[in-house]
Amino acid sequence: MLDTFERLILKVLQRNGRASTHELSEAVGLSPSPCWRRMKRLEEDGYILRYAAILDSKKLGLHAFAHVQVSLVDHSEATIRAFEAFIERDQHVLECASITGDFDFILKIAAKDPEALEQFIMQQILRLGVVRTTTTNFILRQMKVSGGLPIDV
């Protein structure tokens, strides 16, 4: 179980992964040494998986985002392995989740424009040989983008 200080540390780090030990200790109400030890323990215990920068997609030329639902041709181990290997290596796939319902997976895809997104689906996903069908929903506007998890303090 996490105590209140550890939960506060996680909350602050989700908003600012570059917070210094001093900034972190002030934000949570601990002196720097115990704060640093708790943060290190949270890393070692696997609560903190990694630190990452959040980039501006428009400045990087990425203007098309979509959720793509994917149905596989079958559920054999080889099919699933081939699909998962593709998902792991392709940088356009931002997220992938196994889902219930008519489809097997839902992907979040980033591309420079709608044409590039169509090309990615047609020439990459559908040519894998393991995908039966896809349905694409373009994201018109993202009103909230957050990697932060809810943490009750």
Automatic annotation (TrEMBL):
One of its GO terms (cellular component) is cytosol. Transmembrane segments: none annotated. It comes from the Bacteria. Residues 2-63 form the HTH asnC-type domain. Keywords: DNA-binding, Transcription, Transcription regulation. SUPFAM superfamilies: Dimeric alpha+beta barrel, Winged helix' DNA-binding domain. InterPro entries: ArsR-like_HTH, AsnC-type_HTH_dom, Dimeric_a/b-barrel, Tscrpt_reg_AsnC-like, Tscrpt_reg_AsnC/Lrp_C, WH-like_DNA-bd_sf, WH_DNA-bd_sf. Pfam families: AsnC_trans_reg, HTH_24. One of its GO terms (molecular function) is sequence-specific DNA binding. GO terms for biological process: regulation of DNA-templated transcription; response to amino acid. This is Transcriptional regulator, AsnC family. It comes from Yoonia rosea.
